[in-house]
Amino acid sequence: DAKTTQPPSMDCAEGRAANLPCNHSTISGNEYVYWYRQIHSQGPQYIIHGLKNNETNEMASLIITEDRKSSTLILPHATLRDTAVYYCIVRGLTFAGGTSYGKLTFGQGTILTVHP
Amino acid sequence: EAGVTQFPSHSVIEKGQTVTLRCDPISGHDNLYWYRRVMGKEIKFLLHFVKESKQDESGMPNNRFLAERTGGTYSTLKVQPAELEDSGVYFCASSQEEQAGVMKTQYFGPGTRLLVL
Questions:
Q1: Does B9 or A93 have the greater pLDDT score?
Q2: Which residues of B touch A93 (CB under 8 A)?
Q3: Which of A112, A115, B6, B92 lies at 20 to 30 Å from B34 by C-alpha?
């Protein structure tokens, strides 16, 4: 799976949009961009994923550049509860004998701190 | 629908003892993954089950770790004998069956915090 690069930390004011960047310049055509977050000591929480089109769900929006070498996770109205470590993960479908290999490779992530 | 559950939430054992961690995936999820985070390090993949079969165990650190998923439902991860460096948080994740070209999202449990003294 392709390696990702994220800033180690970011700050955001409560109520403002949080824009978390991720570089994945070696991404290949069949690899998806996934975002997870880990709040305090809980298990990683799925946020959103995409292949090449921008995606939006109830939690966030994902903007992927046309060349797919970078992406941005947008939390439109950050709250204090959004303080967490955010992981950008590139994951590909690799098949062997008809079954995919799905492991996630976590990096250091971005520590997002939302302040009042 | 219940999420991924893990038991116990915490375990404190002495070096040389045995510990067994349990993971119950989301009902109907064929794929089950184990990950762990040791102190100060990144979350690392351990192994992947598809139903009861080990699909990928490339992340298992050594033969002191044994994972099973009899019957393709819940899974156990046994550490025997435990060493100090095994301390960390062990996460389990599950996902639906993946078919050609369709990727499925992994959902994580809350983790088991293991401390080996």
A1: B9
A2: 98, 101, 103
A3: A112
CA distance A32 to chain B (A): 9
Whole-number pLDDT of residue A30 = 81
- Whether residue A80 contacts residue A116, with contact meaning beta carbons closer than 8 Å, is answered with yes
Backbone φ, ψ for residue B70 (5° rounding): -65, 130
**Which chain A residues contact residue B45 at CB under 8 A?**
103-105
A9 touches chain B (CB under 8 A): no
Average pLDDT over residues B95-112: 84
- Structure-block tokens of residue B33: 């993954």
Phi then psi dihedrals of residue A81, to 5 deg = -70, -10
Report the b/e string of A38-73 with b at 16+ CB within 10 A.
Answer: beeeebbebbbbbeeeebeeeebbbbbeeebebbbb
Q: What is the pLDDT of residue A99?
A: 53
Residue B57: list chain A partners with CB under 8 A: none
pLDDT for A103: 85
Smallest CA–CA separation between A106 and chain B, in Å?
Answer: 6
